[in-house]
Write a structure and sequence with these properties.
The complex is a heterodimer of chains A (252) and B (261).
Chain A: H1 6-25, H2 35-48, H3 50-82, H4 84-97, H5 106-113, H6 117-141, H7 145-153, H8 158-196, H9 201-210, H10 214-242
Chain B: H1 2-33, H2 41-51, H3 55-88, H4 90-105, H5 108-119, H6 123-148, H7 151-159, H8 164-199, H9 207-216, H10 220-256
Helix pairs in contact in B: 2-10, 3-4, 3-6, 3-8, 3-9, 5-6, 6-8, 8-10, 9-10
Classes of the chains: A mainly alpha (252), B mainly alpha (261).
Chain lengths: 252, 261
């Protein structure tokens, strides 16, 4: 068990405290709210349920999009990584689609799905798909041939080898992909909400910005940042359990 | 002999055949549907051919590239500097880690409204957003690269009586280069995402703005042409980066006997 990093959190506290002091000393309240004001806004908005409802909407579409990306990315990635012919066949298509920034597809997705939650779900799924798919692909390609040979001589069929050899062996790589996708997906989810302006934390931030409600705006920023932090922590903890054999070094 | 030739030529060809088939299916489906949402592939290509060379489009490209270059330069320098110091000193790492983790988890779009209030709607806000997106992959990779450098290197450095600064510059930094480059490469595509995100807000120009405007005016093929150009840009930038990386790291592969990381 790691000891808590006291020094680091003291630094965080000092940074926040100096922000408070600077804002008060130089009267910057018009462009940057003091951390205390932000905290007050955060508590009020969470208690009245306004912000709580918005973050709930964000988390919902985000989780659905991520779930779609995990299922599709792992299945397709492992398959492509396991069969040379599939890799050859899909390589150009992947290289063509992958560099398109997912956020640039938001206006397109709006045309297809409108401004609501389905648009955001699919755009998150698309953005989160690539890191998972590619990591699953690399993971599957890197599987030790000997493992396959042992499985085959032990009478395990092709499908069985895919599920019982390739999949577990690619898990560490897949887990890394999921972690990358989780932060990209959150960025895309909030951006899509901002652009569509219907619901979710992104839309909330856009409204607060237009109304110049700075403490409420910053409260939403802090909330999203905190959510991202929690997700990242949770995924790392889950990863440590799930792929415990892969060693600690990959986890940062 | 012929079998090997078929295999060597066949592999890339198969990829292109599938790609052509996908474009063909798109074309046929779009034509039979006749929906204005999905223009035929040929219509998009024709639009792109006409729109891309116009001075209006190129000025948008230029604006986006200028922002990307500035934001990337700032983000990458800060990322390498902070990452290497966090990697080479345990104390610095401890002091900064929670702060970095909290900031890293914050999606850059969340900072846009705050930055608009502080920096206005102009280029400075956009460059700051791009730099924020670029800094963390570079920082984390630089830190990990330095930390992974072998202890023998450090012992050698202390045997040679290198000072702290000299050790960082001549031992830590070169040893971490492959990892730093990996971070820099990821940061290129993240930077491009940030360019688009930052251009979605507050009007002005740039490719992100272009896509948004063409959609709101229902110039759908133009919108597709803009998205395609962004993909092409990402592809080319990544390709250029791989070339630079190969050049810059050729000594490393020779020195360690390893291939690409």
């Amino acid at each position: 068990m790691k000891r808590p990093n006291v020094v680091g959190w003291v630094v965080v506290f000092v940074v926040v405290a100096s922000a408070e002091a600077l804002v008060r000393l130089f009267r910057l309240g018009d462009s940057v709210p003091a951390p205390t004001a932000t905290t007050r806004a955060l508590v009020t908005e969470l208690r009245t349920g306004t912000l709580a409802g918005e973050i709930g909407a964000t988390v919902g579409t985000y989780a659905q999009g991520l779930a779609i990306a995990v299922v599709v990315g792992v299945v397709v990635g492992v398959l492509i990584g396991s069969f040379r012919a599939l890799l050859d066949a899909s390589s150009v298509l992947i290289e063509f689609l992958r560099p398109i920034p997912a956020v640039s597809l938001i206006p397109l997705a709006v045309l297809f799905f409108g401004f609501g939650a389905p648009m955001r779900r699919w755009i998150v799924a698309y953005a989160a798909l690539w890191p998972i798919l590619l990591n699953a692909l690399y993971g599957a390609r890197g599987v030790d041939r000997v493992l396959h040979d042992v499985a085959r001589t032990s009478g395990v069929g092709a499908v069985g080898r895919l599920v019982r050899v390739t999949l577990p062996a690619s898990l560490p790589s897949i887990a890394t992909g999921v972690r990358i996708s989780a932060s990209i997906g959150l960025l895309v989810a909030v951006t899509a909400e901002w652009v569509s302006g219907t619901d979710g934390v992104g839309a909330y931030m856009q409204r607060q910005e237009n109304a110049f409600q700075l403490p409420e705006l910053y409260a939403a920023v802090v909330l999203v940042g905190f959510f991202g932090y929690v997700v990242n922590r949770a995924l790392r903890a889950g990863e440590r359990r799930l792929v415990f054999w892969a060693g600690e070094e990959r986890l940062r | 002999m012929t079998v090997r030739l078929v295999k060597r030529v066949g592999r890339p060809v198969l990829g292109w055949v599938v790609f052509a088939a996908a474009v063909g299916i798109w074309e046929v489906l779009a034509r039979s549907e006749g929906s204005f949402l999905v223009p035929a592939a040929s219509a998009v290509a024709e639009r792109a051919w006409h729109v891309w060379p116009t001075s209006e489009f190129l000025s948008n490209v230029e604006a986006s590239l200028r922002r990307l270059a500035a934001g990337y330069a700032i983000g990458a320098s800060v990322g390498v500097a902070v990452g290497v110091s966090m990697g080479s000193s345990r104390r610095v790492r401890q002091a900064l880690e929670p702060l970095v983790e909290l900031l890293r988890a914050t999606p850059a779009i969340a900072l846009v409204p705050a930055l608009i209030v502080i920096l206005g709607f102009g280029d400075r806000m956009r460059i700051a957003v791009i730099a924020f997106g670029v800094v963390f992959p570079v920082l984390v990779n630089s830190m990990d690269g330095v930390r992974a450098a072998s202890p023998e290197l450090h012992e050698t450095a202390s045997l040679l009586r290198m000072g702290r600064a000299e050790r960082i510059l001549r031992v830590d930094l070169p040893a971490a280069l492959p990892s730093i480059f990996a971070g820099l490469r990821v940061a290129v595509s993240i930077g491009l995402v940030m360019v688009v995100v930052s251009e979605f807000v507050g009007g002005g120009d740039g490719l992100g703005h272009y896509i948004l405007v063409e959609r709101s005016q229902f110039n759908i093929p133009e919108m597709y042409a803009g998205i395609l150009f962004l993909g092409l840009l990402g592809f080319v930038l990544n390709g250029v980066f791989v070339l630079v990386e190969r050049r810059a790291l050729s000594w490393h592969h020779g020195a360690t006997g390893h291939g690409e990381h």
